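Posting this for the archive.
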Amino acid sequence: MRVRETIAVLSLAALGAAQAARAQVGAGLPDINQVPEAEVAKLPHVSAAVAKQITDRRPFGSIADLHALLTGAGLTAAQAADVYGKAFVHVNLNTGTPEELRLIPGVGARMAHELEEYRPWKSWAQFDREIGKYVDRAEVERIKRHVFIPLDLNTASEADFMTIPGVGKRMAHELEEYRPWKSREQFEKEIGKYVDAREVARLWRFVTIP
């Protein structure tokens, strides 16, 4: 019995380690870099002219870039926040600047500090545990919709890759197919066989080669 219990404990520990090694992209909030222009024009306070500016400028490398465009077009900070509740440029939890983190609706200076404090982020389990010290579960989940933890190109699973907005089975397969990944140049060359340069740049935001 003790042997079985030991095996069970070891199995659970291995499973936990495997899950902790995974990182995913927050689900449920569209990446504005992918939203069709007609749908962008339906976002709060976004006119057809501003929607065209947005789609012409894509992909945005950060939410700060989108924010500069929106405020430059005359939207207030509050109006921009209304947009970000519907579509966003997800923030990299491990490299996002304080400015980018504070553009997440409802995130002020204190929460932005906590989001930086616990770096490096490695898993949603870690995020749930640490940010759950400050806010309730519903708020943890809401913040997660706006952020991502970069996926390791050489170890992420197909299911992990499919958490990237717009990535289906075919692209997930290609991301696995060219392993081992060694450089951004290699990524641009190989993935550039399937999508244009703007989409390559968008996808690159969500991945890393440690």
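The beta strands are 91-92, 147-148, 151-152, 207-208. The first strand starts at residue 91 and ends at 92.
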